[in-house]
Each structure stands twice: as structure tokens, then as C-alpha cells.
From TrEMBL:
Extent of the signal sequence: none
Shown part of the complete sequence: 8 to 338 of 751
Lineage: Eukaryota, Rhodophyta, Bangiophyceae, Galdieriales, Galdieriaceae
Domain DNA mismatch repair protein S5: 204-327
UniProt similarity note: Belongs to the DNA mismatch repair MutL/HexB family.
Superkingdom of the organism of origin: Eukaryota
The protein, known as: DNA mismatch repair protein PMS2
Provenance organism: Galdieria yellowstonensis
Coiled coil, from the record: none
């Protein structure tokens, strides 16, 4: 049984990107307005560090914080239906302890000093030291996947792909949380920085360029005409000079989290291509809101997939909206 539990924990965090996603979500759940990510080594295997200025962790939680299934976000099972925090399963920190060496630096507003906690692979606290720090939490993971040589070597080989995915992930969080200041350093080099104020468009300008912003038109629709769905955001103008050569900047967000919606993205792309030409891809920053009870969300290890119950009605309505937007008649 213990072994089985270990397997399921190890599967909760499949790679560095999944680990980083969990840590950033924890920081957001803790109300952070500043999140600094620091990674070192191929695929962040040497260091994965996320520092936030959120609530910090109460000393009463130290002992259990990295234990499997420990979460401060659910008090009763009934709350499971209404969770609005990003995490609630209490698996991320326990998984990370299993996969690497974990240290936490943390301080709450009430605590007089900060604490530095070290953990063993089972999530037990092995050491507590007092340290000076501001309110918030820093999670430091070193030697990630050392005990899993096969996964480690595959991640080592895929450094470039993994780095792109890590950057993309932080970009997505920055886009969906314009009020949070994000920074990302890779091997000591500052790769990304946002200001933490302004709108989604400001973040787009900070992440990409102000020219990118000038290529966009707003999306604002309730495509099915009832309260069932609402889409807001931005998409490329029908202008060849604004097109991208790959679908690499198409983001869909649902309730402030990045999700995957391949069908919708490819639908928009196809309509866009009818107007702009083949091999042209629009930028897409789309926020989706759906009524409770009209969708399911499948939380896979590293991505979220949204299943809309009446998907064909929804996609048809979207087709109409984007055909009008791009003045495409025969789709
Ligand atoms: P979950 O997020 O599902 O509750 P985690 O394993 O990710 O589970 O985290 C366990 C607990 O540790 C959280 O419920 C929260 O109380 C605490 N925690 C983790 N990261 C932070 C953080 N950055 N700031 C404050 N508390 C945190
Ligand atoms: Mg979590």
C-alpha cells in the first residue's frame, strides 16, 4: 500500500513543468502578488525555486505540510464541490519531497521570525531553523528526479523543450494574473518580468512587444446568446503582417487558469486562415466563463482539459462569431 501511494504521488508530478505549475498555484492560492521563479540546470533539475509574498505557513502546519493528502484548503468533503483555490488535493509538496530534496522558507504576518524547514523523502520535517525573511514562502527543490534515473535522463536530454515549456507556463500565469508580478530567472539570467499592474494587454506588451498589442482586436461575446458562455480577450487582426508561422501563442483561460482547448483553437485558426492564408496563425488570448453544471474539467497531471457538455452548440456559435469577426462567408 505504501508503495502504491508512492507511485500515485510520483505520478502527480511528471516533470519539471508540472512541478513548477503546482508551486505557482500554491503561491497564488496563498494570495501572493509577487512570484519569483528561479531555475538552474538542465530542465531545472539542479534547482527549482519559487518565492512568493503570500500568507506564509503557520508553525502549527509545519509538521504536516509535506505529508501526503495534507491540505489546508478543504475542511470538509462537502467543500469539494465548491473549491475555488487552485489546489486542494494536498499532493504537490508530498510528491516533490519524494522526487527531490525540499526546503521551505516561510513567515506569516504574525510570526516574529521566518523559519527554514528541511524535509526527508517521506515529507517528515528533519530540521527547523530560524531565518530572517519577509512574509511569504520560498520553496526550494534540489536534485529533482535523482531517485528516478530514467525520467531524469530523459528530462536532461530535453532541456530545450523543457525550458520552453517552463517559460510558456509562467507566461500563461502572468497573462491570466495581470495583478501579480512575475519574474523568471534561468541559470542566473532574468528571462521574464512583468509589472504586476495594468491589464492583460499590458502584460502582453511586457511579455512580447507593444507591436504584438497593435496586432490584436478584442473578443467580447456571449456566443450562444444565453448566459451559458462568455468569451473575452484578444485575437489577431486579419492582417498578414501580424500572423505567426506557428500556433505557439494561443492561450485559453478558464476561471483564471490556463486550460487546453484544442478544438476551439483550431476552429479559430481555420477561420482565420480562410481570410489571411494558409500557414498563418493568429495570436489568441481567450478568457472563457461557463455556467456551473455545463462543463467538466479533467485535471490531468500537467494540464487541464475542459469538456463542455453541449460542445457542438458552443462550437457552432463560436464559428458564427469568428466568421463574422474575420468576414468569412463560406465556412
Ligand atoms: P494543496 O495545494 O492541494 O493543498 P499542496 O501539497 O500543494 O496541496 O500544499 C499543501 C499545503 O501547503 C497547502 O494546503 C497550503 O496550506 C500549504 N502551502 C503550500 N505552498 C504554500 C505557499 N506558497 N504559501 C502558503 N502555504 C502553502
Ligand atoms: Mg497545491
Amino acid at each position: 500500500r505504501a508503495c502504491q501511494h508512492q507511485i500515485s504521488l510520483a505520478q502527480a508530478v511528471l516533470d519539471t513543468t508540472a512541478a513548477l505549475k503546482e508551486l505557482v498555484e500554491n503561491a497564488l492560492d496563498a494570495g501572493a502578488t509577487q512570484i519569483d521563479v528561479n531555475i538552474k540546470g538542465p530542465s531545472a533539475l539542479n534547482l527549482l525555486q519559487v518565492a512568493d509574498n503570500g500568507s506564509g505557513i503557520d508553525a502549527r502546519d509545519f509538521e504536516n505540510i509535506c505529508k501526503p493528502s495534507y491540505t489546508s484548503k478543504l475542511q470538509t468533503l462537502e467543500q469539494l464541490g465548491s473549491v475555488r483555490t487552485l489546489g486542494f488535493r494536498g499532493e504537490a509538496l508530498a510528491s516533490l519531497c519524494l522526487l527531490g530534496n525540499v526546503q521551505l522558507l516561510t513567515k506569516t504576518a504574525q510570526a516574529t521570525t521566518g523559519s527554514c524547514l528541511s524535509f526527508d523523502h517521506s515529507g517528515n520535517v528533519t530540521r527547523i531553523e530560524k531565518v530572517a525573511r519577509e512574509r511569504g514562502t520560498t520553496v526550494i527543490v534540489t536534485n529533482l528526479f535523482d531517485a528516478f534515473p530514467v525520467r531524469k535522463s530523459s528530462l536532461q536530454k530535453a532541456t530545450k523543450r523543457e525550458t520552453t515549456r517552463l517559460l510558456d507556463l509562467i507566461q500563461q500565469f502572468a497573462l491570466v494574473c495581470p495583478g501579480v508580478r512575475f519574474s523568471l530567472s534561468i541559470d542566473g539570467k532574468r528571462t521574464l518580468k512583468t509589472q504586476g499592474h495594468g491589464s492583460c494587454l499590458d502584460v502582453i506588451a511586457q511579455l512580447f512587444s507593444s507591436r504584438t498589442v497593435s496586432c490584436l482586436v478584442p473578443i467580447d461575446t456571449n456566443p450562444t446568446q444565453d448566459s451559458f458562455a462568455r468569451m473575452t480577450g484578444y485575437v489577431s487582426k486579419a492582417d498578414k503582417s501580424c500572423a505567426r508561422s506557428a500556433a505557439d501563442r494561443q492561450y485559453v483561460f478558464f476561471r483564471s487558469r490556463p486550460i487546453e482547448m484544442r478544438k476551439l483553437c483550431s476552429l479559430i485558426t481555420k477561420i482565420y486562415q480562410k481570410q489571411v492564408g494558409q500557414h498563418s496563425y493568429p495570436l489568441l488570448f481567450l478568457h472563457l466563463e461557463l455556467e456551473d453544471g455545463t462543463f467538466d474539467i479533467n485535471v490531468a497531471a500537467d494540464k487541464r482539459q475542459l469538456f463542455i457538455h453541449d460542445a457542438s452548440t458552443f462550437l457552432e456559435a463560436c464559428t458564427q462569431y469568428f466568421c463574422e469577426l474575420y468576414k468569412v462567408k463560406d465556412y
